[in-house]
TrEMBL record:
Belongs to the protein disulfide isomerase family. It comes from Pichia angusta (Yeast). One of its GO terms (biological process) is protein folding. Keywords: Signal. InterPro entries: PDI (IPR051063), Thioredoxin-like_sf (IPR036249), Thioredoxin_domain (IPR013766). The keyword Cytoplasm does not apply. This is Thioredoxin domain-containing protein. CDD domains: PDI_a_family. It comes from the Eukaryota. GO terms for cellular component: endoplasmic reticulum.
Length: 284
């Protein structure tokens, strides 16, 4: 059990792609060596805290732009003095976009998330990323029965997440998505990973039904359950270790949770309350 846990946690700390690192000796030949291709370069310094914070957001760009006319590189700005002096680098991390002719198009100074960098690159180059298929299925009021309540023979995880929150802002490379891929391709035990984006107004009814007030909040529906069986809820320390250990049967602080029976019953109760108010008003 512990071996599997350690393997899964290692997986969750590793980026999907291999980021090519250039240096003083090959910077121009690699960054400017492909006619018609742009290059987005990450200048970093070892031990730089802001660089460490950026890397999980930057590295997914390699996979997303593979096969396009945009290349992704990194370079140690501290040890590669020639390139550092050439572009007058004074702080790290620095992100620069170059054309294949060697033109310095400019530095990216926006919010350092994958989504925001994609917006910038798309505006600057017109190049769109190639998104891989996701294993995590997004749940909405329209498909929740099919994707959750009818999956009685499967372990099902449902997370309510805020897409602006750290570790959840890149749906294609989050630890949750990587866990879903690993369970599907390696563990193969039928565990299903589902998610609700709390920023979408249409999902407000699900927030009410599941009584969610903080993000992320995770619900675990064990396999071979009955329709009326209570799921487990975890609304603190929702990370890869807690999820894996919970699936393995450990107690990580999850509690049983009673769902509102249905959205329709909630609406009926509200209508009844409104009728009572109207009746009292007429009596007056």
């Amino acid at each position: 059990m512990r071996t599997l846990l350690h393997g899964l946690l290692f997986l969750c700390g590793v980026a999907l792609a291999s980021l090519v690192e250039v240096d003083d000796s090959n910077f121009e030949s690699l960054v400017f060596g492909q006619p018609g291709k742009y290059s987005f370069v990450y200048f970093y310094a070892p031990g730089c805290k802001h660089c460490l914070d950026l890397e999980p957001h930057f590295e997914p760009l390699v996979d997303l732009y593979e096969g396009t006319n945009l290349q992704i590189f990194k370079i140690n700005g501290r040890t590669n003095k020639r390139v550092r002096d050439k572009y007058q680098l004074f702080g790290y991390p620095t992100l620069k976009l170059f054309s294949s002719q060697g033109d310095d198009i400019g530095a990216y100074t926006g919010i350092r998330t994958t989504a925001k960098m994609i917006e910038y690159l798309q505006d600057a180059t017109g190049i769109h990323p190639i998104y891989p298929p996701k294993t995590v299925v997004e749940v909405s009021p329209e498909n929740i029965d099919q994707e959750l309540f009818e999956k009685l023979q499967n372990d099902v995880l449902l997370v309510f997440y805020a897409p602006w929150a750290e570790r959840w802002d890149n749906a294609h490379n989050s630890f949750y998505e990587r866990l879903a891929q690993y369970y599907k391709n390696e563990v193969k035990d039928g565990t299903l990973f589902r998610a609700v984006d709390v920023s979408k107004a249409e999902n407000n009814v699900l927030l009410a039904r599941f009584k969610v007030t903080k993000y992320p909040t995770l619900f675990y529906f064990p396999k071979n359950r009955e329709h009326n069986e209570k799921p487990f809820k975890l609304d603190h320390d929702v990370g890869p270790e807690e999820i894996v250990e919970m699936l393995m049967g450990s107690d990580v602080g999850q509690t049983e949770f009673s769902l509102v029976n249905s959205l329709e019953s909630t609406e009926v109760e509200e209508d009844i309350e409104d009728d009572d108010v109207n009746a009292q008003y007429r009596d007056l």
